[in-house]
Write a structure and sequence with these properties.
Layout: H1 3-105, H2 119-130, H3 137-156, H4 161-168, H5 172-185
């Protein structure tokens, strides 16, 4: 091979080798740039997802607290209503007992007559108008404490709310209230 052909072949090989190496280097750099760009995009999306999810979780926590507050208020109203219903049931029973007693003991008062002017009726009405808490507070506290103890002891023995109410002759709501307060106290 003459020297010119040798230089032409060697130059061609060198040019092809250089071009190939340059192509591979550029391709590798482009892949690395693409990977870096993809990583940046993924990190950006993860940051956005974290922000949105934290915001949603905070909103859920606020809703949960609001629901808890509403439930507490509903329980308080339910307790109050249960106590008032029990008081009304007792008042109704007392009025019925007075009416029966008056009808049995006094023939001059036939059934169906308005007893609002009778002294026993007035006395009972005044008692409830003043409020059970204001009259004989000591006696009421002892009675309520005894009922509480009886409710709790029957509950500890495994009786249901309805069974306890039937045994003690009180409302189921009152029993549930006492048991609920007892559970909170533990």
């Amino acid at each position: 091979m003459d020297p010119i052909t040798f230089f032409v072949v060697a130059g061609t090989i060198a040019t092809v080798t250089f071009s190939w190496a340059n192509f591979l280097m550029n391709n590798k750099l482009k892949k690395e740039e693409d990977l870096d760009e993809t990583e940046q995009r993924i990190l950006e999306l993860m940051g956005r997802f974290k922000y949105v999810s934290n915001l949603r979780l905070e909103m859920l926590d606020k809703k949960i607290e609001e629901i808890k507050r509403v439930i507490r208020e509903a329980n308080e109203v339910y307790s109050t209503l249960t106590v008032k219903i029990t008081d009304l049931m007792k008042l109704k029973d007392n009025f019925m007992n007075i009416e029966e007693e008056i009808s049995e003991n006094h023939d001059e008062f036939p059934k169906g007559v308005d007893f609002s002017e009778h002294k026993e009726f007035k006395k009972e009405k005044e008692y409830y108008d003043l409020g059970v808490e204001e009259i004989e507070e000591d006696k009421i506290e002892v009675t309520e404490s005894n009922v509480e103890k009886r409710i709790l002891s029957l509950y500890d023995e495994g009786y249901t709310d309805v069974e306890i109410a039937k045994k003690l002759g009180i409302g189921v709501g009152e029993v549930q209230l006492m048991i609920g307060l007892f559970r909170r106290g533990r």
